[in-house]
Structure formats: C-alpha cells, structure tokens
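Quick entry, no commentary yet.
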Amino acid sequence: MLSDKKIIKIHNKSDKPDNIVIRDNTLIERCINIENKLPKFMKDYFIYLKGSVAVSTRLAYLEDIHFFCSYLVESQELTNASDIKDITQSEFDRISARDVNLFLGDYCSRYYRQTDKNTLIFENNNRALARKKSSISTLFKFLFRNEQIKNNITDGFNPIKLPKPQPDAIKRLEIDEVAKMLDAVDTGEGLTEKEKVYWKKTKLRDKAILALFVTYGLRLNELRELNISSFNFSRGEFKIYRKRGKEVLMPINHTCESVIKDYILNERPQSELLEEDVRDALFLSLQKKRLTPKAIRSLVKKYTSISMETSRESGYSPHKLRATAATSLIQTGFSIYDVQNLLDHDNVTTTQLYAAHKKNVKRDIVNNFEWIDDDNDNKEI
C-alpha cells in the first residue's frame, strides 16, 4: 500500500541552497497546520504575520496563540466553543486585560496535563511568560487596528519582569582553554578509548566545527546548515543564513580555510558517493547524513569538558562558544560595535555584557598612555 504522504520535490530558482529552502518550508508547513486549527476570523492576522516577521517568529507566535485558545476552550469561562476553530470574534471581543493576566499569571506559570499513566506538571519561567504575553499582545493589537475588536486591552497587561543579565554569569572558555580544546581534537588526549574509535574517523571534521564556532561565534543552526557551496575560497569568503532570513557574507581567515579544506579533502566522503540531498552538506555524520543539532551539541560538550577538566555533562553548549568568541575578540582589542556586527546582535547592550569581561581594562588604558617619560622622573632637580 502506498503512503499518502507526498514526497516534496524542490524546484529552486532562488540563490538559496536547497537545505535552506527545505528548512523554511518545514517551518511554513507547521505554521499552516496551526493556522488551520485556529478560528477563521484570525485570517487577516495570519497574513500580517506572514509578511512582517521571520518564519520562526511566526511559528512561535502561532504556537502561543493556539495554547491561549486551548485554554479558553478548556476553561469554558470565556467561550462556549468545544473546539478552538469555533471560538467567535464576538467572544474574543469580550476578553479583558484581566482575563489575559489571569491566564499568564495564574494558569501559565504552572499547569497540568493528564496522560494514561501520569500527571505531567508544566512550569514557565518569566522569560517564557514574557514571550507568551508578546504573542498575545500582537494578536490583540492587530485585531484592534483591524477594527475586529472595540478596545485595545494590551495596555492593561501586567508587566513581566525579566532578570537583568549579569556579566559574571556568562559562561565561556578562557583563551588557554580554547587552545587546550583544539589540542584535544588534534591528539585525542582526554578521550576515552571508546571515544577514540570515533575520533580517528571524525577529528578533522570536529576541528573544523570548533574552529568556526570560536572564530565567528556562529549559532548552532548557522553552522549546521553550511554547505560546500557556501565557501568561495578564491574570494576568501563564505555565506551564512542568519535569523530572519538574512544572508551574510563572512571573510574566511587562514586557520578556518586550512581546517575546512583539510576536512573536505582528507576525511569527508566524496560527494558522488552520497545521497543527492546531502551531496552539498558540509558537516556529515558517520552515517553520511547532515549532522543533527544533538550531535553537534554532544561534540562541543565533549571537547569543552576536556579543556576545562570536568565531566562530559558539565561541558559547554555551542552557545557558550559564541560567548567565547565574543569575549576573546573584545579582549583582543576589537570594539563592541565590530563584535556586534560579526555576531549579529540586535542590540549593542548584549555585546556590552561580553565587554564587561575585559580584565584590567582601566589599568591597561592608563599604563599605555604615559605623558611623561620615565627617564625624566630620575633626573636631579
């Protein structure tokens, strides 16, 4: 019996690689699936999201709104609908700021789900609650602007205080620990005998991955989605696809060019021996598939734990290598605005947190800015 699931064929006339098109299409399909479960009066809002935010943000908003509508049906206090699709525009118009505040502050902070065997407890911290509030706010503001509800109730939503990030709480590797991590990839020192079996087959790949992380502060998916065609070695640059669909050309330095070429020429399977959908993928697993996010996290945790001489569980995530790149660049002397641009921070205040790690900055400034020569201090008056 043939499967009802259709095979997706890529007819790509854009300059984006197929894996990026497939990634975006997967997110879009998830968005459409949620939209089909929501009330029809929200259709204009769906169109607004489609044209105004990144597809990943669109999906996050829709998931939060679906969760809110599920709550409305479950509580039966604000709607008579037994299905989310049946919630009416007039029922939404009767929702007050107090109703949303109760949802966020009372229900969302701790709720339960029953399964056949267990009672599951879910909790949301303030960051998660703030995102849900933002998603619901965009919906109610749009419905008000679109004249579908009479009042803009969002001004009455309770504020949700988020903890201010502290520089001392930012985890990253010190420069000597980065060197130790890269040495571990070269030599296998610190690996178990079982790990060394795999290391012999993947050490060039692993070194290229770690070098890109600590040099450019790439996000996990930015690295995972790299292709061989992303690199133009004759021009000394490579292309990455950032959040919100941004395409960015990055200059490639000698170290990264060297380790990537070494991996492609001496370890990566030849493209003609691979399945068509991964022939262009840069970083492959031993199963000849594009590396999964889980595999990349595991790889990074393993080598960072060796550099810090701690357990595998205490190793760092790829995001900590992003913080490592930021602090290392700032300590080397680059301005926070240069680092902001390289790492694609929306707000420079994020980059300033890494700048706070620059040690003895005041002492370095005054010691290198002497007005009077030492020889003059020793002359007799």
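second:
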Amino acid sequence: MSNTDERITRLEETVAHQAKTIEELSDQLAEQWKVVEQTRAKLDRLTERFLSLEEQSLDAPAITRPPHY
C-alpha cells in the first residue's frame, strides 16, 4: 500500500469517526432540548400557580385576634 493510500485510508477512518461523533452529539442535544422544554413547561405552570396563590392571599381577609382576647 502506498503512502498516499495509507493517508487516504486514515482520513476516511477519521471522517467516519467524526461523522459518528457528530451523530451521537446531535442525538444528545435533541434529548437535552426535550429536557429543557419540559423544564420550561414546568416552570411556566409553577409560575402560574404561584401567581394564582399570591393573588388569592391578597384577597384573603386580614388576620384578626379572636373575640375571646
């Protein structure tokens, strides 16, 4: 095998390895994006719930001393 053939073979192996790595990273990125979207949705729901509870607490009657004091 000539030096050029060996270099081409090494380059082909490198490209194949890099293509596999890129595919794996792309898959991981897609999974992480799902987690980010789920977390964002949970945060949105919690924010809505918090704001609703805060609004309810503002509408609640003031705490007063019981009549027997």
